[in-house]
Amino acid sequence: MSSSLATVICVLGIAGLFYLDRDKSVRTSKALWLPVISLWILGSRPVSVWLGMNPAAENAGMQLEGSPFDAGVFGFLLAAGVIVVITRRSQTGAYLKASWPVIVYFAYCLLSVLWSNFPDLAFKRWIKAIGDFVIVLIVVTDADPVAALRRLFSRVGFILFPTSVLLIKYYGDLGRGYDPDGRPMNTGVTTNKNTLGVIVFVISLGALWNFVNVLGAKGQPDRGRHLLAQGTLLAFGVALLVMADSATSVACFALGTVLILATYLPSIRRRPGRVHALVLMILLFGGLTMLFGGQAGVVHALGRDTNLTGRTEIWAAVLPVVPNRLVGAGFESFWLPPRLEMVWSHLSQYMHVNEAHNGYIEVYLNLGWVGVGLIAFILISGYRGAVDAFRRDPTFGSLMLAYVAASAIYSISEAGFRMLLPIWIFLLLAVVGSRGIALGKGRRTREILRTRDSRITKLPTVHAPSLQSLGGTN
Fold first, then answer.
1. What would the pLDDT profile of 364-416 be if each residue is shown by its tens digit?
2. How far out from the chain centre does Cα 373 lie?
3. Going by C-beta distance under 8 Å and a sequence separation of 6 or more, which residues neighbour residue 234?
4. pTM, whole model, 2 decimals?
5. CA distance readout (Å), 353 to 23, 310, 315, 422
């Protein structure tokens, strides 16, 4: 098949997926397109790279250079997003109060700009990081946040997944590349197999959640075409995880899948307290065995060396270079000159890295032990909120639990708590969104009471049996 014909089929297939998944009974805000567009960019390549305006940074000096064009794109999306959350000030205020651990973390990040060697650059990066939080707020403050979340998964996945397969199969100069060892890798719409793996695994978890929910909703209108759309998206996701060969993403998707499916078991839904044992088992199996006695067996099973493909060498090189153990180098300031050259000088010649490949170490380098403590507090707060959400709404809570657990595990071998990363955005979504169950139920209760009071006020004087009948319908 020629690349042109494959492109036409891909475009028609994407249009078909959107058509199959349409649902006129659900209304979400037009503002939801802002998070969708942001994830299209963050889950693929900067717009300037797509347009051939800005090659990937290859040396220390280029780490200090940004793309004015990309800055303008993100600036526009951020400004538009801020306007949206301001217009929803009542909902936004409630979520901000409920998400105070996240607010404290971002406040500390802003404070850490003061001791950065490049405070202007650190402050610009902090502004970009706020965009991650704005994306989350737009989703959770939608009139129907669960429907908005479902559409977010579909709209992002329907574009990025088929396009990635197209580029890998028919446009090798765009969809394939080589790692530092010279081994071929599939990158799809991204520039790195690990970047492809993380966007695929976070969206595929959402696709799995959508598919399972539609499968169980036997009375839902047009259930068949929704199953076909979500099943196709999930199939694309699984295929891309195999193509990407990102061991961490594959492991996290598998563990997240186990968690989501296990929470549908009646024995756990009837006894929500058992979810603690389930999550603990997953964390122990997926995380701790990578670091202790079962390290070699687990790593080999994932297709990696016992040094985690050079990660232990990176960790040994970066830890002695941190300028202050308590507060770190300042927000997103460690991987800048002169520390960058110092790290590179202690690594193999080809290892010109710009991250620690461990989320907890990455936070330690930039924000010190204080930052690590705040991240731990966010994870604990997110877990407690997700468990509470699971007790109130097991369907939604299971997905939030999966993202919290997957984020904790993912960050053992990748820098998962960095700005503008899909895994970080979905962790924030889990932490903030878990509070939405209580807030949303409270709003719905108030709306029901207002509606009932309004109906009673408008009714003429009636006999007692009619009032009892009215009360029975509410």
1. 999 999 999 999 999 999 999 998 988 888 888 999 999 999 999 999 888 89
2. 21
3. 204, 207, 208, 211
4. 0.86
5. 45, 11, 11, 20
